[in-house]
Design a protein that fits this description.
Elements: H1 9-15, H2 18-33, H3 37-45, H4 51-54, H5 62-67, H6 71-84, H7 92-115, H8 120-132, H9 138-163, H10 172-186, H11 190-196, H12 199-215, H13 225-253, H14 256-285, H15 290-307, H16 322-327, H17 342-348
Helix pairs in contact: 1-11, 2-10, 9-13, 9-14, 9-15, 10-13, 11-12, 12-13, 12-15
């Protein structure tokens, strides 16, 4: 997201999840053919070995090379990136000067860390300080709390629908494969939605569609199995689209200096929901197969309401610091946002995607 041009953020930020859909489809077939869970786990883990050869084909992080003094290797990686992106790098002397400055800053930072006392108490205090940044000021606190709530809700609904096929009175293998099929458009057509309607409006619409379709199951006769499955799949498609857009939107909402800790803690809160949902489905399904679905529908509508508290980020440059976020006023529409001119982008090359005019 940080190294991507603004015009491609929507495409890259959503399409990256598309292989997940194909994996979900294949899981339905694997589960049907391999009924023993040990063989199933062994089989689906084997493709992971294909990642190993890729480690020798991928470039090392330029920043990692720079802070370790391997500037020539970092320059080769940057040149390859500029060639692929058809942009021109600054002069070699300028790049080496930037690398030396970056390495010096990192060296000073590491020296200060060595001077600080270590231990469990210090480590816990450092972790607390890192997380506290996400709550210290008004705007970042609102964004953090709203995203935490929505990640918890969207994880609960998504995994509740994904893993509850056997509780909803449908064939679990066909349900898993069909769910993957429904996730495919959710990870592709949403690109046009976020570009035309914006991140917030698109997400609210998908949450509402999911909520309404699942709540409708409360009055749908369970004997009409095809209608029940159809409504569940509509809910699954909409909540998957909302899930992908929420991840994408959150990346744009958190400023660069706290983006990693913001996204990682959002994922942690979301996984609390996905861990709790199997127990929730077990308890609610004992009342009636429709009860978990109606509960998920209500959760989707709550998430839609929370989404109205988050700002729109379409056409708005990503913030670098929390201070910059707090100082920002009303989010400007696309037409009033100033980007680098094509000539400036060409001149500045690889660094242009990171830079915004002051």
């Amino acid at each position: 997201m940080e190294t991507c041009e603004p015009r491609l953020r929507s495409v890259i930020g959503i399409l990256v999840f598309l292989p997940w859909c194909f994996s979900i489809i294949s899981l339905g077939g694997y589960g049907y053919l391999l009924r023993d869970w040990r063989w199933l786990m062994f089989t689906v883990s084997m493709p992971g070995l294909l990642y190993l050869p890729m480690l020798w084909l991928m470039d090392e992080s330029p920043r990692w090379l720079i802070v370790r003094g391997r500037h020539a290797e970092a320059l080769r990686v940057l040149r390859r990136a500029s060639r692929w992106n058809k942009v021109e790098l600054p002069s070699e002397e300028h790049l080496y000067a930037i690398m030396k400055e970056t390495q010096a800053e990192e060296t000073d930072s590491q020296r200060r860390e060595v001077d600080h006392p270590r231990g469990l108490k210090t480590t816990l205090k450092n972790v607390a300080d890192v997380v506290a940044v996400l709550f210290r000021t008004r705007k970042i606190r609102t964004i953090t709390l709203c995203l935490y709530a929505n990640f918890f809700l969207v994880d609960s609904v998504y995994y509740g629908l994904s893993l509850g096929g056997d509780r909803f009175g449908v064939d679990p293998y066909a349900y898993m494969a069909l769910g993957g099929v429904m996730e495919t458009p959710a990870n592709s057509i949403t690109i046009a939605l976020v570009e035309k309607l914006g991140r917030r409006a698109s997400n609210i619409m998908c949450f509402v569609i999911s909520g309404v379709s699942l709540l409708a199951l409360g009055v749908t006769p369970s004997s009409i199995s095809w209608l029940v499955t159809t409504m569940i799949m509509i809910g699954k498609l909409a909540i998957t689209a909302a899930y992908m857009m929420l991840y994408f939107h959150a990346n744009e909402l958190f400023p660069t200096e706290v983006r990693q800790r913001g996204m990682s803690t959002c994922a942690m809160v979301g996984k609390i929901g996905s861990v709790a949902v199997p127990f929730l489905v077990e308890i609610l399904a004992s009342i009636g197969s429709w009860v978990p679905l109606v509960t998920f529908g209500g959760a989707s509508l709550v998430a839609a309401g929370i989404m109205t508290r988050l700002p729109e980020t379409r056409g708005v440059p990503m913030k670098d610091t929390v201070a910059e976020l707090e100082d920002s006023g009303v989010h400007r529409p696309r037409s009033s946002v100033t980007f680098l001119a094509p000539s400036e982008e060409k001149k500045d090359g690889f660094l242009a995607v990171h830079r915004r005019p002051s």
